[in-house]
Amino acid sequence: MSVLVVGSLALDTIETPFGSVREAVGGSATYISAAASYFFSPIRVVGVVGGDFPQEGMTLLEERNIDLEGLEVIKSGKTFRWAGRYRYDLNERDTLSTDLNVFEKFDPKVPERYRKSKFVVLGNIDPVLQQRVLQQMENPRVVICDTMNYWIERKNKDLLETLRRINILVLNDSEARLLSKEPNLIKAGRVIRGMGPTVLIIKKGEHGALLLTESVTFSAPAYPMENIFDPTGAGDTFAGGLAGWLARTDDLSEENLKRAVIYGSTLASFCVEKFGVEGLRDLTYLQIQDRFRQFRELSRFDGD
Amino acid sequence: MSVLVVGSLALDTIETPFGSVREAVGGSATYISAAASYFFSPIRVVGVVGGDFPQEGMTLLEERNIDLEGLEVIKSGKTFRWAGRYRYDLNERDTLSTDLNVFEKFDPKVPERYRKSKFVVLGNIDPVLQQRVLQQMENPRVVICDTMNYWIERKNKDLLETLRRINILVLNDSEARLLSKEPNLIKAGRVIRGMGPTVLIIKKGEHGALLLTESVTFSAPAYPMENIFDPTGAGDTFAGGLAGWLARTDDLSEENLKRAVIYGSTLASFCVEKFGVEGLRDLTYLQIQDRFRQFRELSRFDGD
Question: Considering the domain B3-299, what is its CATH architecture?
Answer without folding.
Answer: 3-Layer(aba) Sandwich (3.40)
